[in-house]
Amino acid sequence: MKAIRLHRDLTRIWGNEPGWRGVFSSVSHTDLGKRFVVAAAVFFGIGGVLAMLIRAQLATPESAFAGPEVYGQIFTMHGSIMMFLFAIPMLEGLAIYLLPKILGARDLAYPRLTALGWWCYLFGGTIMILALLGGVAPDAGWFLYPPLSGKEYTPGVNSDVWLLGITFVEISAMCAAIEIVVTILKFRAANMGLTRMPIMAWYLLATAGMMVFGFPPLILGSILLEVERAFGWPFFQPEFGGSPLLWQHLFWLFGHPEVYIIFLPAAGALSTIIPVMARTPLIGYGAIVTAVMALAFLSFGLWVHHMFTTGIPHMALGFFSAASVLVAIPTAVQIFAWIGTIWAGRPKFTLPMYYILGFFVVFVLGGLTGVMLAIVPFDQQAHDTAFVTAHLHYVLVGGFVFPMLAAAYYWMPHATGRTRVMRLGIAAFWLIFIGFNLTFLHMHLTGLLGMPRRVYTYPAEAGWTWLNLISSIGSFMQAFGFGLFAIDIALQRRIGNHARRDPWDAETLEWAMPIPPTQYNFASLPTVDSREPLTRDRKIGAGLAAGKGLLGRAIDKRRETLAVDMVTGAPEHVAILPGPSLLPLFTAMVIGGFFLSMLLSLYWLTPLFVVGTAIMVWRWAGTTGTTRDPGPIDVGAGVMLPTSFAVGGSVGYWGSVLASAANGTLFASLVFGYFFLWVVAPNWPPPGEYGAYLLEPLLITAAAALALLGARMGQYDFGQASVGSALAAIGLALAIGGLLWAALHHLPGPTEHAFAAVGWVLTSYAIFSAAVGLLTQCFVRRRIASGHANAAWPHEFRIAAVWSDYGAGVTIVVAWLLALSGDAL
Amino acid sequence: MLGGSAILSALVFALLLVALFRRGVADRKTPERKRVWIGWLGLGMPIAVLMVLLAFALSVGERNLPTGPAARTIDVRAYNYGWEFCDEDGRCSEGMLRIPAGQPVDLDITSSDVIHSLWIPRLAGKMDAIPGQVNRLRIEASVPGTYEAVCAEYCGIGHANHRFVVEAYDIGESVAAGGTAP
User: How is this protein annotated for GO cellular component (chain A) (predicted)?
Assistant: First the structure.
């Protein structure tokens, strides 16, 4: 009976608000994760329809189905949707839904940030689809190379839709990345040390870490290209000292890690499902973790293999070629660990297993053609031909779609509490698998016979007619397969039989809860002593539901979950999470206003939305924290822990550190761009006088030093904190003034030369960072006055220091970078 | 590479098939055979294969680089949508590149608008035509004849038909006919 009362109380605390309001204010990771997955599946359908149009057009030579203008939009949107609106959000949705459940927590680290990410994704994706329906979709290829995507050659709004829509969606990727890392490091079951984490957590940690460092170059590139298009700042125009290759570097600096960002969560699903289906533990946990980390690291060193034909010297290409080949090794480690696991066990031929076998066939072939393409002389022939189209589909469909289909069948009983109904899933598998290979296997040959990518037509005498026709037939077969899959999933959701708890005899904690899951996940939180807690004790779920674990009680409206030491997993503090809120929705709307004002060229409105966003974030931050800390609380088993208000290393602090790391990557990419243009672009050095001054950077450094000092004063003596934050704010304000002064006196107009354009972007970025720091210091000063921050709870004070130190650091670097250019070099 | 890939994929698929139909023990207590799966198959085999492949690739790549002087150098300018070829004497032509057969020719490639990529599949790999930058590509047609060439980088609505032809002529015949090389 205790279990039922506990369930009722926890549902009251963790449930959504009633009615429609609850839909908009939900911050539940279960709801939001499912929304991400469903929306991504819808976008996959839209992208799939576009693929059908491409195949319809290419089925015959000289086809009159679509003209080149329409075809440009179709293939650009097919690629963009599949990458940005399907693959990334799908993996985010999987992570958002699963993570707290496999780690033994009740929610993610920042529930409202999850909701903000969801709304940004939905709005950004909607902008893209509306543009497609309106016939003004992006049409310069999903890589959007300037100058083709620039104002001169794409005068319409098409490229802006891509730059602004995708950047809007990327906000959700950055939110998810930070949230996933912090959740994995802090919100785990008691005693779940790093080496006891389920393997999926390692994969997602690597993925999210890559997103933190991989997305900023793309976001920076998009900002620069949009500013060039909107205001004529010539970053990519060689006649004014820009370089179109800068875009390619920034784009692929994101674009290659992106492939592994997509692959790793899918591989994580495989590493989770294969041992369950083989009824034996995964072989080589440590080796796989090492391989995954190696992949994450290596993937940042091979972006140039997308640029083997841009005229880069051969020895430099050799380096990137070697790095590209090396990634095959950690991938091989995983493949053989999986086969070895199946070898050791006695596999069950369940439906997920079909898709896993499909994965092996398709992905191994894609990996081998990938090694071929890493070889420079081969790539120079095959680059930009249908061979590459075939290769990338083998890798992405094999490495992501097949594992995700397996994952869908594996976790459907968890999300719906139902088992599958008919043998439709097997028919769907064969249609997809045969259709896929019929589309893409001989497309390698089509490419080697000379068919380039992205052509809307080809002459009959080229000899590619039969090959293309077969591809088109195969693609329609695939489409039927995916349609059947969708029907099967819908049937399972509607009329499937109720599944028993843990239907697969799985090993991870998400199955130690009733299915479909409750809003609070676990009525009490587990303590683990092995990597496979369910193997040790199949009844663990019943005990947790009866409240025999930690935090198995309901107090007021307080949403509690356990935060642990990052390495050992020892219980550290009780995190108190925020409840339902409309703030994420409203904040996303204001951010959307910013993007729409840019898209519609209503530039006078844009500053209003920037200020509006700042106000929303201020209000958001104002609703965290408390003035009445309950003090150390009993978590059960006689353990007393402090709350998140009273610890220094709260999730808010670690999130700020990670946000600064992402921010720093963006800044580093900008500095890279500055030096890249200086060294590589034509028409440098810029004409006229610039740089070579000392007074301004010295003064700015002094002001920034004041900010650094002020932010520290309260750390030693909290009595000084209020004065210190005032000093820090004044220091940052002075630094902003100094930066503006220096730019106005020493930089030419931003439209005159790429140097001036980059100089103004550096200055604007430094001013922005300093302004953020200034606002956080003002905020924390008010919080000290209102009693939210004090000597016992220095938490907000430490967070403010992270942001203001970052702003101060950036101003110093930018001031010297610009002052020491020109004659000083 | 095709043969190597075929052998490797056959190996993986064979292992997978045996693994599937072999009766394992499934008692969750069997010692892991890490040395075989991770050590030999996961690490050893790919490292060995890839080192050989890389060494081969680097040597082929170096051999493809231009060595020694070219018989002539031609400036190529790509634009939306055409190709212009100018020789050392400043004589230009459009849409047709004439080169002597059996002699190395350097193409200095650039673009006057967006990025294109010059590809003569039967003569050489691709080289991008990038505004503000000149990329050199060496080609050599060993026998006289016509060779089709296409643009390999998406350059807008005319991309599919952004083509030209290379005509390699026999130097002996050309001189015998009393003409000079164009």
Answer: plasma membrane
- Residues of chain A found within 8 Å of residue B157, distances taken between Cβ atoms: 67-69, 72
Task: Give the pLDDT score at B179.
Answer: 44
**Which of B 80-139 lie inside 8 A of A, CB atoms?**
80, 113-115, 117, 119, 121, 124-128, 130-133, 135-136
Inform me whether the pLDDT recorded for B180 exceeds 90.
no
Tracing tokens 């500013």 back to the chain, one arrives at: A227
Q: Name the minimum distance, in Å, from the CA of A52 to any CA of chain B.
A: 19
- d(CA A674, nearest CA chain B) in Å: 17
- Under an 8 A CB cutoff, do A357 and B45 touch? no
| d(C-alpha A263, C-alpha A261), whole Å | 6
User: For the domain bounded by B72-176, which CATH number is listed?
Assistant: 2.60.40.420
Which residues 6+ apart lie within 8 Å of A787 measured at CB?
A627
CB nearest to B32's CB, from A283, A321, A458: A283
Alpha helices in A629-720 (DSSP H): 651-680, 695-716
Confidence (pLDDT) at B16: 92
Residue type, A255: G
Pick among 3.90.25, 1.10.10, 3.40.50, 1.20.120: CATH of A685-819: 1.20.120
pLDDT at B178 over 90: no
Tokens of A452: 């380039």
Give the best residue of B2, B5, B32, B139 to mutate against chain A (max A CB count within 10 A). B32
Upstream peptide bond of A516 is cis (omega within 30 degrees of 0): yes
Cross-chain Cβ contact B154/A280 below 8 Å: no
Separation of alpha carbons B112 and B127, rounded Å: 15
How far is Cα B6 from Cα A482, in angstroms, rounded to an integer?
29
When the pLDDT of each residue in chain B is averaged and rounded to a whole number, the result is 88
Q: Are A413 and A499 in contact (CB under 8 A)?
A: yes
Rounded Cα gap, residues B142 and B120, in angstroms = 14
pLDDT value, residue A824: 53
- Ranges of residues in chain A whose predicted pLDDT is under 70: 1, 822-825
Chain B's closest residue to A290, CA to CA, is B38
**What pLDDT was estimated at residue B171?**
86
pLDDT band per the 50, 70, 90 thresholds, residue B167: very high
For residue range B38-64, list pLDDT tens digits in order. Answer: 888 889 899 999 999 989 888 888 887
Q: Which two tokens stand for residue A710?
A: 């002020």
Partner residues linked to B119 by β-bridges: B150
- Cβ-count burial of B31 within 10 angstroms (0-12 exposed, 13-18 middle, 19+ buried)? exposed
> Which of A282, A369, A380, A394 is the best mutation test for B, with the most CBs of B within 10 A?
A380
- The whole-angstrom separation of Cα A104 and Cα A204 is 15
Closest CA to A297 of A249, A338, A329: A329
Q: How many Cβ atoms sit within 10 Å of the Cβ of residue A430?
A: 14
As a whole number of angstroms, the distance between CA B157 and CA A425 comes to 41
Q: How far apart are CA B175 and CA B182, in angstroms?
A: 11
**Range(s) within chain A of domains with CATH label 1.20.120:** 685-819
Q: Domain ranges in chain B?
A: 2-64, 72-176
Is residue A277 within 8 Å of residue A102, measured between CB atoms?
no
Q: Residue B158: its chain A contacts at CB < 8 A?
A: 68
Query: Is there a contact between A328 and B113 if contact means CB atoms under 8 Å apart?
Result: no
In A279-350, alpha helices (H): 285-298, 314-326, 328-344
All residues of chain A having their beta carbon less than 8 Å from the beta carbon of residue B24 are 278-280, 342-347
List, as one string, the DSSP characters of A150-218. STTT--SSHHHHHHHHHHHHHHHHHHHHHHHHHHHHH---BT--GGGS-HHHHHHHHHHHHHHHHHHHH
Q: Which residues pair with B92 in a beta bridge?
A: B86
Distance in Å, alpha carbon of A483 to nearest chain B alpha carbon = 29
Rounded Cα distance between A226 and A233, Å, is 9
